[in-house]
Amino acid sequence: MDLKNENSSNGWTADINLEKLHKMAAELIVPGRFLLRFLDGVLVLVTNLMARILGSNPVRRHFHLVLSGVVLFGPVLSFWVPKYSIFANRNHYLYRKFLKSTWGWTCVFTASFILLLSLSARHSISLCLRHLSRIGLVGLLWWGCQRLLTLLEDAAGTCYEAMAPAQDTQSPASSGQPLLLLHEGQTKASCLRANMLWRGYEVSQDILILCLCCLLLVEELSAFGPRLVPTKPPQRPPGAPLRFIFLLCVVLLAVWMFLLLCLLAHFPTFPSQQLGGALGYLGWRGLYQGLYRLKTSLGCPGLPGEGLLTSKAYYKHVQ
Predict the structure, then answer these.
(1) pLDDT at res. 174
(2) Dihedral of CA 255/53/65/60: which sign?
């Protein structure tokens, strides 16, 4: 009898605990759903606003002019920025984690956006791969620029080793200035690894890749605005994952612009940075204003949104 009573009491308490858990879950589901709907509404509002801004004709046609003005006149900010700011330190977290892997961040986020945009508009793997090939060509261009600039810097520069002047030297030229011993046959990388001095002409690769990535992001993200336009027959509206990755790309664009201003204001090097910006602009001009505008039948990937949008929305977008 005691065993039966104990078993029945245990079953009764288990039922009570399950009922309590169901009630607690039901109480949490309602505010959870309300919070998710609120966040989804905010996401839709923000992404629609950013898509309208980035897809507008003034931004698409004149963003490269704004970026050129920033690169040309950004070093003037060095007269006003504080010298002891946290961004005046080259070892800052933003420089170490983002600047050294600018292309990696841009490639991952932009490729994810293109993939989701292509699959949501057209369920075609070949069309998706064609649009992803644009990112591959930009990556190939960046790799070639790195190799070419490294070769030019090694050919145009020289490596020196600083040596303390002898104590018995009486010449006034040697007082206060270290002697420089020339080392021939050294590359810039090996010279700096040996803690020696490198003197020569160079092009800022940081400014080059930042400008190229900013122009790339604006071009690719501008295709999201026409995707929101109602079409006939109606397409499925963009889902939360596509909107979220679009918002992350917008944040990444803001980070690159901020890093560009920080480098120009805190570490101005004329004309190295301006040459880097010019090369980034030429790379964007040659690809998005030249190669990608050719017919896709010639093997070119085409412009952003080509083949994904309706003909009316696409032609309005490219004009």
Answers:
(1) 47
(2) positive
